[in-house]
Specification:
It is built from 2 helices and 4 strands, in the order H-H-E-E-E-E. It is an alpha+beta fold and about 80 residues long. It has a domain of about 30 residues. The strands form 2 sheets. It has a two-stranded antiparallel sheet. The chain has a two-stranded antiparallel ribbon with strand order 2-3. It is flat, with a radius of gyration of 21 Å.
């Protein structure tokens, strides 16, 4: 019984780390937390990936969606 519990816990940790890698695709920096004094920034990004292929003569088409992202950071020392 304890082997099953240990195996379940190990599998859970394995899959949760795999899902965590896909949660944040923005790559937003944490620089605002570590700047001295006041700090403000705004950012905008647009991504248009092109992912396609073919298997045995059948085309897959474009499999990746376009997306945009916006970000803002504001820090004020009190």
């Amino acid at each position: 019984m304890s082997f099953r519990i240990a195996l379940t816990i190990a599998i859970t940790f394995f899959y949760s780390s795999a899902f965590a890698g896909a949660l944040d695709r923005s790559g937003q920096p944490l620089d605002a937390l570590f700047h001295k004094g006041g700090y403000a920034e705004f950012s905008f990004g647009s991504v248009d990936p092109s992912v396609s292929g073919s298997v045995v003569g059948r085309e897959s088409g474009d499999m990746a969606d376009d997306y945009t992202q916006m970000g803002a950071a504001y820090k004020l020392d009190l």
